[in-house]
Amino acid sequence: MSNDYLMKHIQLTSLGLAQVFNLEEVVHEITDPYHNKQTNELYKVLMDMLVDGKINAAEDLLFAAVENEDVEKEDVFNLAFDFYLKVNDYNDDYLQLCNFSRAEANEGWADITRLCKMK
Question: What is the pTM of this model?
Answer without folding.
Answer: 0.71
